Amino acid sequence: MNTQHEQFDTARLRAIPIAEVARRLGDTVRRTGANHVTLCPWHDDHHPSLSLVEATGKNYCHCFSCGHGGDVIALTMQHEGWTFRQACQ
Hints:
4 helices, 5-stranded antiparallel sheet
């Protein structure tokens, strides 16, 4: 397949539970009520401030310190320093 025209099933990727993705990236994830928390990859975080929301069909992260967040693809891109294509692969 020509990589310039490569397409990804982003809906399927975005459906992978975000806490599972964070764990696979090597983060320590702990449950807090209905959600999970971990260290934020968007800033120098020393106390877990990134909320991983999976409840009621949602699947995203949001940092209550710096305000960044996104879906599993954005989290992977930021955590690993990868492009969109690399994160989807």
